[in-house]
From TrEMBL:
<dbReference type="GO" id="GO:0003729">
    <property type="term" value="F:mRNA binding"/>
</dbReference>
<dbReference type="GO" id="GO:0005840">
    <property type="term" value="C:ribosome"/>
</dbReference>
<dbReference type="InterPro" id="IPR012340">
    <property type="entry name" value="NA-bd_OB-fold"/>
</dbReference>
<feature type="domain" description="S1 motif">
    <location>
        <begin position="208"/>
        <end position="239"/>
    </location>
</feature>
<dbReference type="Pfam" id="PF00575">
    <property type="entry name" value="S1"/>
</dbReference>
<dbReference type="InterPro" id="IPR003029">
    <property type="entry name" value="S1_domain"/>
</dbReference>
<dbReference type="GO" id="GO:1990904">
    <property type="term" value="C:ribonucleoprotein complex"/>
</dbReference>
<dbReference type="GO" id="GO:0006412">
    <property type="term" value="P:translation"/>
</dbReference>
<keyword id="KW-0689">Ribosomal protein</keyword>
<keyword id="KW-0687">Ribonucleoprotein</keyword>
<protein>
    <submittedName>
        <fullName>30S ribosomal protein S1</fullName>
    </submittedName>
</protein>
<feature type="domain" description="S1 motif">
    <location>
        <begin position="125"/>
        <end position="192"/>
    </location>
</feature>
<comment type="similarity">
    <text>Belongs to the bacterial ribosomal protein bS1 family.</text>
</comment>
<dbReference type="GO" id="GO:0003735">
    <property type="term" value="F:structural constituent of ribosome"/>
</dbReference>
<dbReference type="InterPro" id="IPR050437">
    <property type="entry name" value="Ribos_protein_bS1-like"/>
</dbReference>
Length: 306
């Protein structure tokens, strides 16, 4: 298991719990330079984070709260927003006082280690784990290691178009992504290439079946219904259809040459679509080229990773 995980994925592991269970184990972890995790419980008026440790007090001084705080390139909200959440850190030192032992921790050093040893070694096309941290209309921000964030633009999330990333993801969701670009340790991600080709998705359905889908757009010639995040079909219009509705659809035909699925809407419901963890075809390794279109199609849709 990689040492550089999205923040929060390490906190409940036996390895992490053992390292924090005693002063002796924490000192050994400090000497090894281990990255550990615990929960931030308070941010004081000087923006120092108090961290919940099982055997002593823990503090992350403000300037150690995030990579860039010390230099002024990152705002204090990066520290304040961690209260109530898991934080990663390395142990800097122990201070013994009359009221007990305090561990001085550094999240910034853990992030620097991650940036240098992990993110700096990523290549375009690498498939990596990530965790959704927040969503904006233009894309999803993902923690790719120790709280360091990469952007996934909305048009890279799936082949089936969406109006907002919250139609596909929720904050805190663990996903996989593929590295789209790396510039000065700034990473951009893609996602749709991990969700299968047209043929792989279409193989899950058969003519004559009635299945559920999500209405993604309504045009004057029909309604596009998403069957899978990378597969949509065209249905004849019905009254009172709304984008985002769940629909029961009958599969009339599947035409690989045209990458088309013709549908008939049997019924539709006002229930909002709740995003589920994606069903991936690829979760590891490296991608050089992703070809979405089937061989028999006249259209070529592919992504080249360079």
């Amino acid at each position: 298991m990689t040492a550089f995980l999205p923040e929060g994925k390490r906190i409940d592991t036996a390895e992490n719990s053992n390292a924090l269970s005693s002063y002796e184990n924490m000192r050994a972890a400090m000497e090894r330079g281990d990255i550990l995790e615990a929960r931030a419980v308070l941010c004081d008026h000087d923006h120092n984070l108090k961290v919940d440790l099982p055997c002593m007090r823990g503090v992350i001084p403000r300037e150690e709260g995030a990579l860039g705080i010390r230099e002024g390139s990152v705002r204090d909200i990066a520290v304040i927003s961690r209260v109530g959440r898991a934080v990663c850190f390395v142990i800097k030192e122990f201070i013994r006082r009359e009221n007990g032992m305090t561990a001085v921790l550094s999240r910034a050093d853990a992030q620097q280690q991650c940036a240098r040893q992990y993110i700096g070694g990523l290549h375009v096309g690498d498939v990596i784990p990530a965790r959704i941290t927040h969503l904006e209309p233009f894309g999803a921000f993902c923690d790719i290691g120790c709280g360091l964030v990469a952007l996934m633009p909305i048009d890279a999330i799936s082949v089936s178009r969406i109006e907002h990333p919250d139609e596909r993801f929720s904050v805190g969701m663990d996903i996989y992504a593929v590295v789209k670009s790396v510039t000065d340790n700034r990473v951009t991600l893609s996602h749709k290439e991990l969700l299968g080709t047209w043929a792989e998705n279409a193989a899950r359905f058969a003519v004559g079946e009635t299945v559920t889908g999500v209405i993604r757009s309504i045009e004057n010639y029909g309604a596009f219904v998403e069957l899978m995040p990378n597969l949509a079909g065209l249905a004849e219009l019905r009254d009172n259809l709304r984008v985002g509705d769940t629909a029961a659809v009958y599969i009339k035909s599947i035409i690989p040459q045209k990458m088309k699925i013709k549908l008939i809407i049997i019924d539709h419901f006002g229930e909002p679509h709740v995003p589920a963890v994606p069903d991936y075809f690829i979760t590891s390794g490296h991608i050089e080229c992703f070809t979405y279109s089937p061989p028999e199609s006249n259209r070529l849709i592919e992504t080249i990773f360079r």
